Amino acid sequence: MSADSPAKTILIAEDSSVILNLTRKILELQKYKIVLAKNGGEVMKQLENNPVDCVLMDINIPIKDGMQCTREIRAHADAKINALPVIAITGNANNYSMEQFREAGVTDYLPKPLDFDALVRVVRQYVS
């Protein structure tokens, strides 16, 4: 990333403050700007109010789960929002098939417990 390019912004949708804070620290060390959503109800508000480059979506967030949020992102009228890479983060990926993730519009997914090297690698892959 060149010094004059603006920092890329990642929305982290995660209700566990421990995971949220760790993830945020790791990504801030990589010079990303972070926007937070503590539940599915905040995801769209944040996306509509902030230019975001990528979404890290916990599948088990309250109010609206990550699958529902991802479907809403894909259905959004604004192309800047509906084309965003959505990386699902889930502790029970076995509950969903890759097929279901794709059907919801998930771009990629990371299992919990999070491997932070993989996190950085995957985010970098979609936010270059």
Automatic annotation (TrEMBL):
Domain Response regulatory: 9-127
GO biological process, one term: phosphorelay signal transduction system
Origin: domain of life: Bacteria
Keywords, comma-separated and alphabetical: Phosphoprotein, Two-component regulatory system
Modified residues (4-aspartylphosphate): D58
InterPro entries reported for this sequence: CheY-like_superfamily, Sig_transdc_resp-reg_receiver
Protein name, as recorded: Response regulator
Species, as recorded: Hymenobacter montanus
